[in-house]
């Protein structure tokens, strides 16, 4: 018999905040976690949802800022996705990340929550020069797989979902998923948790694929890479002025 859940807290960075999927009814981002929560609430009417994720956050800061507030709300379901931003930076330490990931999942499990973990989708085909970092993403994914197996957590393997090879699932910056990509993640999460996904999430993609290089390398670098580099040099983050969009557990419907 499938498990039933009454409350869900999502923690992480831009992936979980929903960057790349603007809410059709508002001025904030939606994303896979919102989409999953709506479907879960249709299956479990009392379902409550919180989202503490903030774009740009590194692994340690996500743990320091979001884990305790999540546990204090006593959810019976938690998602944790972090480390992608770390893999893009010098000094990336996969051993330290794996050790702390183990402690995070152990804490959530001890609190009585089921934990959903993710491997990251493969972004390397979409961004110039990213192939040199491919090993970092694979190492991070291996850590998530090992920790999930050790603690009996739910693992959503986005790296293994070849649908994400399609550039039509990615935003113009090539780093974040777009609306179609977030729907695909929501679909995968629903399947992992025995929630009925929205059939429309797998509607055929547009007939004419968005070109993998919808702008040339110089245009892309000027519009998307240069601002990222500037933030790194100035010690700033895209999430410095961002607050959690749904900090407390509230009923979805």
TrEMBL record:
InterPro entries attached to this UniProt entry: GDSL_Rv0518-like, SGNH_hydro, SGNH_hydro_sf
Organism the protein comes from: Glycomyces sambucus
CDD domains hit by this protein: SGNH_hydrolase_like_1
Residue ranges annotated for the SGNH hydrolase-type esterase domain, each copy included: 10-184
Positions of the UniProt region annotated as Disordered: 234-253
Lineage: Bacteria, Bacillati, Actinomycetota, Actinomycetes, Glycomycetales
Biased composition (Basic and acidic residues): 242-253
Protein name in the entry: Lysophospholipase L1
Domain of life: Bacteria
